[in-house]
Specification:
Layout lengths: L5 H10 L3 H32 L8 H30 L1 H5 L7 H23 L1 H4 L2 H20 L3 H7 L6 H12 L7 H19 L2 H11 L3 H5 L2 H49 L1
Helix pairs in contact: 2-3, 2-5, 3-5, 3-9, 5-7, 5-8, 7-13, 9-10, 10-13
């Protein structure tokens, strides 16, 4: 047999995926189809049995209801996994740039499948759930996660961003209350509004100094310069892009929470005044 061209061997080596990369790809694909199934089948089936109000919704509202149900499920699964990694994955916490990304890749793989699934639904049902900010958010996250999954870099920072998912259930619950006709001054709405503002602030705003101080500690180090230019731009650009949107959303949530609390106090004061006059 003749000698094999080294160039051909190199191409074969690049084309062949190691078993773990194949596993991550399988997780992402499975995640995609799981969230599609949850949207199209599981959410409608469960919702009709859990909430009678679901049957009274129009077509567009049902689409958004199912989208938010899936979003809440993803947030709880990925958020809890993220918290476990932050608390117990010493390899990632000790080396935030090149620590062992095994668990982070699994978590990011799940999120990647969800983001692609959600983007598909957003474009397909644009009139019902289309939102340019969500498209920007998803694309920025996928751009950064490409480097995490492809090159195993920046696992700590990728996982840290997923802390933000803990605010999602309360944000979705506010919409559920609204579409079901709960008054904004009702106790469930007020309790959820306060919890939403508090959790959103904690996991998206208050953590910024921790995140960027950790980024500053690795900036200019050997580990930092081992990250490709594309990886560094994705990391820094995506972080700023996501946090600008987080600040914008926090502003809206804080204003909404203030209005709900004010209306609740006004309603209570009116009730007390009416009680005195009677």
């Amino acid at each position: 047999m003749g000698d094999v061209n080294p160039f051909v061997l190199n191409l074969r080596g690049r084309a062949a995926m190691d078993p773990f990369s194949q596993l991550i790809l399988a997780i992402s694909v499975t995640s995609f189809f799981t969230f599609q199934w949850l949207f199209h089948s599981a959410s409608p089936w469960v919702s009709t049995r859990v909430s009678a109000g679901f049957l009274r919704l129009n077509h567009k509202q049902r689409i958004e209801w199912n989208s938010r149900t899936v979003s809440t499920f993803h947030a709880l699964v990925v958020g809890l996994f993220c918290l476990y990694i932050l608390l117990f994955d010493d390899a990632v916490n000790e080396d935030p740039v090149w620590g062992d990304p095994t668990l982070v890749k699994i978590n990011v793989g799940i999120t990647t499948g969800y983001l692609i699934s959600d983007l598909l639904l957003i474009f397909y049902y644009w009139k019902a759930i289309g939102d340019k900010f969500f498209v920007i958010h998803h694309l920025a996250a996928l751009y950064a996660y490409y480097y995490v999954l492809g090159q195993g870099m920046l696992p700590y920072f990728a996982n840290f961003r997923l802390l933000a998912e803990f605010s999602t259930p309360c944000v979705n619950q506010r919409w559920f209350f609204e579409v079901l006709g709960y008054p904004k001054s009702s106790k469930p709405n007020i309790a959820n509004g306060v919890m939403m503002a508090a959790i959103f602030f904690l996991v998206r705003i208050a953590v910024m100094p921790v995140y960027y101080s950790r980024m500053y500690t690795v900036y200019g180090t050997e580990a930092f310069y081992r990250v490709s230019w594309g990886g560094r731009s994705a990391w820094i650009f995506s972080s700023f892009c996501l946090d600008i949107m987080n600040v914008m959303w926090m502003h809206k949530i804080a204003r909404g929470c203030y209005k709900v609390l004010r209306s609740g106090r006004r309603r209570k004061a009116d009730a007390q005044e009416n009680g005195k006059t009677e």
